[in-house]
UniProtKB/TrEMBL annotation:
Key words of the record: Metal-binding, Oxidoreductase, Zinc
Taxon lineage: Bacteria, Pseudomonadati, Pseudomonadota, Alphaproteobacteria, Sphingomonadales
Record domain Enoyl reductase (ER): where: 13-343
Name of protein: Hydroxyacid dehydrogenase
GO molecular function: alcohol dehydrogenase (NADP+) activity; zinc ion binding
Cofactor: Zn(2+)
Pfam families, A to Z: ADH_N (PF08240), ADH_zinc_N (PF00107)
Domain of life where this protein originates: Bacteria
């Protein structure tokens, strides 16, 4: 499969057209012509090497949906013409305890899971390229069936932002009537608010952008709190059972701790850069747990797609062309998105100038079909 994508070969560069070849679908794999790909904050971090782990070239995108155009021998779940989605992973060992438990993101095999872009979780010198491209090939176990009720424009953010925020709700058993706190109401947070309501929780949104209040309330939040409003923070002390912290950069977590009930949990899903001067005394005295949570397994990702279809949960999106990606990154840095950009990949397929000026890069390596 000859592919045109958008990526960068260094952190300081703008994204530009690149071309490469994906090996044809082997036994157990499907090839997908990508119709849409969401833009995640992780894409920006990875393209700018904020986590000091980027494998170059970087062709981001792990919020993928499209049409199956080829199937390898032995494929049973998909046929040519079906819609299929791909989230944050394209492979794992399928044999370890974590994989067998449905938590492929924590695979303990030789490479751990292979990410949709940036190669294996345990780096081995190979690289994978994501959905800022015209097509992708993936083993069928890592492709998701798309409910008829969900338009392709809205699928991508569900298989990243949706599963990332749903996973801790499921893991910690969020129950009807409990109070879910959501810190940071961006691409992830706006999905967390809606999913919490779908699970019949009371949802409290905590934001540093009070100008978003009307938009957040339209998502279904029962209460919106400005973290800088001391009176509101004090009035809601010890009311939250589970908090999903979606803030994607280093920040002060301490102001959020008084909101938590005793024996509650804070799940960090977006911040890979740590916290400074964490108030562990309050955490100890109130038995507040702080945990990390990475996306979710394939079965749970399929589950959240079905949940969104059933409860009419959808991301709030803005469609963009592929050549608008640098502008989208800039707007994301300024928090000027309501609430997720989605790339229309037909805009790249029809861009003859992109194909003409695309630079050839090494072909990606997605790993063997094992397990």
């Amino acid at each position: 499969m000859d592919v045109i994508g958008y990526g960068t070969k260094k952190a300081s560069a703008h994204l530009s057209p690149l071309k490469f070849t994906r090996a044809d679908a082997r036994a157990g794999e499907i090839a997908i012509e990508i119709s849409h790909c969401g833009v995640c904050h992780s894409d920006l971090h990875q393209a700018r090497d904020d986590w000091d782990n980027t494998v170059w070239p970087c062709i981001p995108g792990h919020e993928i949906v499209g049409k199956v155009v080829a199937v390898g021998d032995g494929v049973t779940r998909f046929a040519v013409g079906d819609r299929a989605a791909v989230g944050c992973m394209v492979n794992s060992c399928q044999q370890c305890e974590q994989c067998k438990a449905g938590d492929e993101q924590y695979c303990t095999g030789p490479k751990s899971c292979t990410l949709t872009y940036n190669g294996p979780k345990k780096p081995d010198g190979t690289n994978t390229y994501g959905g800022y491209s015209t097509g992708i090939v993936v083993r069928e176990e890592f492709a998701l069936t798309v409910p008829d009720a969900i338009q392709s424009t809205h699928v991508g953010p569900i298989v990243c932002a949706g599963i990332t925020t749903y996973q801790p709700m499921k893991y910690f058993g969020l129950k009807e009537g409990q109070t879910l706190g959501v810190a940071g109401i961006g691409g992830l947070g706006h999905m967390a608010v809606q999913l919490g309501k779908a699970l019949s929780a009371r949802v409290v949104a905590i934001t540093t952008s009070p100008e978003k209040t009307d938009d957040i309330e339209k998502l279904g939040a029962d209460l919106v709190i400005d973290v800088n409003d001391k009176d509101a923070m004090e009035a809601n002390a010890k009311t939250i059972d589970l908090m999903i912290n979606t803030i994607p950069y280093k920040h002060d977590l301490n102001p959020y701790l008084p909101l938590m009930k005793s024996k509650s949990q804070i799940a960090v899903v977006g911040n890979f850069l740590g916290f400074d001067d964490l108030d562990t005394a309050t955490m100890v005295f109130e038995h507040i747990g702080l945990t990390g949570s990475l996306i979710g397994g394939i079965a749970d990702t399929q589950e959240v797609l079905e949940l969104c279809a059933k409860h009419d949960v959808r991301p709030e999106i803005e469609l963009i062309r592929m050549d608008q990606i640098d502008e989208a990154f800039e707007r994301m840095q300024k928090e000027d998105v309501r609430f997720r950009h989605v790339i229309d990949m037909d805009s790249l397929r029809s861009d003859t100038s992109a194909a003409e000026k695309a630079e050839t890069v090494d072909d990606p390596i997605r790993g063997e079909v094992v397990g």
